[in-house]
Amino acid sequence: MKIIAADVIVTSPDRNFVTLKVTTDDGLTGLGDATLNGRELAVVSYLRDHVAPLLIGSDAHRIEDTWQLLYRSAYWRRGPVTMAAVAAVDVALWDIKAKAAGMPLYQLLGGASRSGLLSYGHASGKTLDELFDSIREHLELGYRAVRVQTGVPGLKSIYGIASNATFEANSGVRYDHEPAQRGARPAEEDWDTRSYLRHVPGVFEAVRNEFGPELPLLHDGHHRMTPIQAARLAKSLEPYDLFWLEDVTPAENQEALRLVRQHSTTPLAIGEIFNTVWDYQTVIREQLIDYVRSAVTHTGGITHLRKVLDHAAQYQIKSGMHGPTDISPVGMAAAMHLGLSIHNFGIQEYMQHGARTNEVFRQSFTFSGGMLHPGDAPGLGVELDVDEGGKYPYERAYLPYNRLADGTVHDW
Ligand SMILES: [Mg+2]
């Protein structure tokens, strides 16, 4: 089964998505998500100019060999652009192989290990009242777990809270929080770690008082703390029994989590900006984390992320795959097939896409009672309507960045 075409499709129905479509000589097609939020066109060029010519004429069934060829023959390997491109090829080939077998992809990955995937959504509010309303909305949608992010007194605009500007920039499309804004320049947000550390424990106390002890609650520190600040945050949130605390320190410094572990039993999650199994060596081997946050889309596809998760499984570390709206429906479907098949599934992040996105990407997966399932259509179960997608050309969009009160650039 030879590959005869590898087309890169860019569409921006509610936000930018990059999709690779691979076609074989017997007429099968496979899709892979290559969306890298805020740097989308770099992956388009990598795929179109450097990878697609290598694929034409090669055997679509040789998934592992193709992965190793793309990774090792580049020489300048790893990194988000390379690994998103490799991921797109890998997932497209898995889609094709499963279609050729006439099976949903999870069957080829070993079959279902569970009946559905526990998912969490993003509840947020500038104030406690807004936050409580958002949590109730999520519970009404069926979610059985929620991430909780709030405004901090004295800060105008911070990560995790949908701002009016973002809402308008996205044409009023409902997002729990879509940080990438269309425009010529990234938005500037503000940050003060001491204010945040004082405020957050009271928020979780109020949420527990309102919603009780059962509801799994998650929180994202988004890489902003020093190691000792992160340790203090994890310790101060212990009484509220978080499902996990995410990205408490910048991801480059894996050893920072040793200090956090020494001070707290709050479960930790990290890895949404990691790209390879090698990025996880220290945190898995030293058992510094409890959940792996990588997305299929940014970690070299199903072939490579499964290796990360198998390594993690030896230490009882579970999956918590990244799933905000910049993971396209193709990337989400790949995560669901992988999550359904592995033993050490933990939870799946799931922000719901807008109506225009759902018109462009026809999906077979379901969300019911807080649980996702990839469906039983052959392959990934997602098809891209190229004509519909063509109505929405790329629009430049950037993630915001942070400055402290004195003007210093800070981790966003
Ligand atoms: Mg995160």
From TrEMBL:
SMART domains reported for this sequence: MR_MLE
Ranges where the Mandelate racemase/muconate lactonizing enzyme C-terminal domain occurs: 128-267
Gene3D superfamilies xrefs: Enolase-like C-terminal domain (3.20.20.120), Enolase-like, N-terminal domain (3.30.390.10)
Domain of life the protein comes from: Bacteria
One Pfam family from the record: MR_MLE_C
Protein name listed in UniProt: D-galactonate dehydratase family protein
Organism per entry: Promicromonospora umidemergens
Organismal lineage: Bacteria, Bacillati, Actinomycetota, Actinomycetes, Micrococcales
